[in-house]
Amino acid sequence: KPIAGETSLDLNHIWNIPDPNDSSQTLYKITLLDWINHSPQKTFEANTQYQLTAKIEAVHPSISLPDPAVSSNEKYFSITTAEQTTYGKTASGSPAITIVFPKTETTITNKFIQLPKTKEGQKPKTSVNDDHFSGVVTWEDENGNLIPGNGLFEANKKYTAKITLTPKLGYTLYGVPQNHFNVSTAESTKNVENSGIVTAKFGEATATTPVKINISGLRTKAYYMPAKTINKTNNTPFESEQITWSATSTLTGSAAFQCGFTSTNPPYDCFFKPNHAYQAEFVLIFPAGYDTTKLQSDSFVVLNANDTQYDPLTKTITAKFPKIIGLPTSVDLIYTIPPPPTSDSSAPPVSLPAPPDTNTAAQLEEQYAYIPANTKMPLGLSTTATDVSLDAFFIGKTEVSYRLWYMIRDWATSFGGYTFESLGRAGNRGTVGAKPTDADQFEPVTTITWRDMIVWLNAYSEYDSLSTVYLTNSNVPVRNAKTIDSGTLIVSETANGYRLPTDAQWEAAARGLGTSPGSITDYISVTDGGTTTYWLKDDYASGAIDKTINSSETKRVAVFGDGKTAIIGSKTPNTNNVYDMTGNVAERTFEKTIRGGHYASSSSDLGVGHGINGDMGGADPRYGFRIAKQ
């Protein structure tokens, strides 16, 4: 086959074709007669088609050739490197073949070779890749010493890269002009004509101060929705272009993502799948004036990922995540259990936590606070203790976000056989049933009924491989919100799944102060079995140190008076480390009571002892809920 840059064979060149079964026997002799559009002993050009004619003779006595006068243009022979082989005859009538070859390779036209600047502590790049070529890179310092494969650049030294390029299929270096290639980060780049040996000389390697920047907000979890972008936080002043997600390992024959019937923009409204591993790739967008010169390939760490690589040239992050092993279980959740209570009444006052950064909503929404067991506590508007039988339990630190609601509802309706009365919305301003946006995904879910909450909690339990709490009178999980009958609803007290808090549980989490009232002077104290516990009176907002008549103190702990909902966990938590027990959205309990007031309430309606009667229906934009767990 003609190859660009090589020399064509001379006339009368002979090929002897052996017997494939006996290489000592020659079957045919082929003699080159003429190059049709070319001359012998001349260089083949790039991107050019060539053809030749050759005389063919049968050498072995057992073989004869057909008469070319009768069989002209028939394809008796095939040359594997040719596009076409035609049987015919010479001017003298001897048997001959005409061979048409495919075009020779195209000269490489791409000229840019991507190599990063030389920086202190950076490992030299040892390979390059392009659509037209690939290449191996070796490095030497200013004294001619080769840098070993595990070596690093040193500050203030000059380095030279020798790049040996290999054309990819269909391309050739023949025809490449002198100094065709360019390494933009080098001071000079040289190559000779028709050559892929490139020399790039770099200036002094810049000294760098290693930096490590954590990127949060990305995680892969079974039936969890992939993040679409990285958003700015107080610690990371950059954001990202749209994230590209891909599966790096899957089950045989399995799709990379689980998409339900509401999926319109995969994979962002689809789910990660069990037994798959994933990779995220995204381009960082830095604010004006941000110094990126010190960023290296290992400057970033994507939390929850196994491996993070940063390309300083393209500003691209590639993060590889571990394989998701089966469905998540309750051990994936974060339970905060305080130390055992003390009966020492001289214990120091409880310090009030600082208001959280709103960017912690993603971390808070699946965290749970531990509430200890109680046998006596105040309930409602009473200022005295009531006998209760309250086992220790966990309660969600925040109200259920619209993001979490939407994710579980979509999974439940697509794959779990669940039916809801209402689609829900983000806070009081979102669109009913719409996909969560970056702006509203951590608003509390509203506009759902008590029945929807019961069914959703069962779905969330199944999603998390827990036993469902709410059963029909046939002892099967409740899956249809439209057919729930509270008269026949069975509550499993032994199930380890998610449930609505009871009135008593809600009050224990909202008004319990533990074994010290802290700086609160007007409180309810309850002594039981030698231990004294302290409780907020009914006219305090949860977490406040003064009564609801003190509007500024109430605003410190509760979202109200602004006519709109807020991101979950955006106010100061109470002493149980629980957020928004009063304000933001009012919360339904299992008894269908509506507790805690909401964003449109007056401050006097935010007391922890207040509540109004509700029912199983009523998809209201003022009402949401939080999760409890035995």
General description of the model:
The chain contains 6 helices and 37 strands. The chain is mainly β and 630 residues long. The strands form 11 sheets. The chain has a 5-stranded antiparallel β-sheet. A 5-stranded antiparallel β-sheet has the order 7-8-9-12-11, with no helix packed on it. Strands 14, 15, 16, 18 and 19 form a 5-stranded antiparallel β-sheet that branches. Helix 3 packs across helix 4 (450-463). The longest helix is centred in the middle third of the chain and has 15 residues, at 402-416. It starts with 13 loop residues before the first strand and ends with a strand. The relative contact order is 0.08.
Low-confidence stretches: 327-359
Report the mean per-residue pLDDT as an integer.
87
- The helical percent reads under 10%
Strand residues, percent: 25-35%
Structural Rg: 38 Å
| Strand order in the sheet with the most strands | 1-2-3-5-4
Structural class: mainly beta
The biggest sheet amounts to: 5 strands, antiparallel
Q: Number of DSSP helices?
A: 6
| Spatial gap, N to C terminus | 78 Å
Any idea what the shape is?
A: elongated
- Say how many strands there are: 37
Topology:
Elements: E1 14-19, E2 22-35, E3 51-58, H1 68-71, E4 84-89, E5 95-100, E6 106-107, E7 127-129, E8 133-141, E9 158-167, E10 171-172, E11 188-190, E12 197-204, E13 213-215, E14 239-240, E15 244-249, E16 277-285, E17 300-302, E18 307-311, E19 316-320, E20 334-336, H2 361-364, E21 367-371, E22 374-377, E23 386-390, E24 393-396, H3 402-416, E25 425-426, E26 445-446, H4 450-463, E27 470-471, E28 490-491, E29 498-499, H5 503-511, E30 512-514, E31 524-528, E32 531-535, H6 551-557, E33 586-588, E34 593-595, E35 611-613, E36 623-624, E37 628-629
Parallel strand pairs: 6-10, 13-17, 20-21, 33-36
Antiparallel strand pairs: 1-2, 2-3, 3-5, 4-5, 7-8, 8-9, 9-12, 11-12, 14-16, 15-16, 16-19, 18-19, 21-24, 22-23, 24-37, 25-26, 27-28, 29-37, 30-32, 31-32, 33-34, 34-35
Helix pairs in contact: 3-4
